[in-house]
Amino acid sequence: MPRPRKCRRVGAAPEVTYFKPRGVPLRDLTEVYLSVEGFESLRLADLEGLSHEAAAKKMGVSRQTFGRILAQARNTVAKSLVQGLAMRIHGGDYRLSPEQGASGPTVETVSAAEENREMNKIAVSSEGPGLDEPVDPRFGRAAGFVIVDPETLDFEYLENGAAQARGQGAGILAAENVARAGAGVVLTGFVGPKAFQALEAAGIRVAHNMEGLSVREAMQRFNDGRVQWVTVEEAKGPMR
Hints:
single chain, 6-stranded mixed beta sheet, 3-stranded mixed beta sheet, 9 helices, 17% strand
């Protein structure tokens, strides 16, 4: 299991969390996700003009980590502007704190993902609506997702037909649907880099290599702590 990421400090929560092209209905738009720490990195580097070293110190991360957060945030914003996509500021691993030198105690808060999502829900890509159905090895073009409570195994089924019908962007749309369903973890066979980025931005962890199992068996593997978590490095590789 990978080492948990260090919680990043954020000076202030964004006041506006959604942007979209004017005149285009939401139903016709694809969303991209900008994490709250990504928003903070843009504020510090591009608005306040801080050096990477100074901004990293404010966020409580290394300079290298800050550089990665900032690069991903800039890429997300550029993609939204160039491709005409809606952008939602949401999720991440962070805590709110006053600016350095401000009076008063530090205010600790859970991330937006924890505030807006029941983190105990698990989304398993599935070929059918049940626990004994095979895991669908595809994420973006899975038939659907079984949304499971890992303690009780109570579940509901989320169809993925809209994503399947897309020529492009199926993984991103599937990620959006899983996030709206309240999942905090995805179990699947393979996930592409763009879908992984959308899931990561929404605060959703991804475990892969579940092909050949039933949904029930995948859940058992999760509950036993025997899943393989996708890392950022793997997501950049030749994943489908």
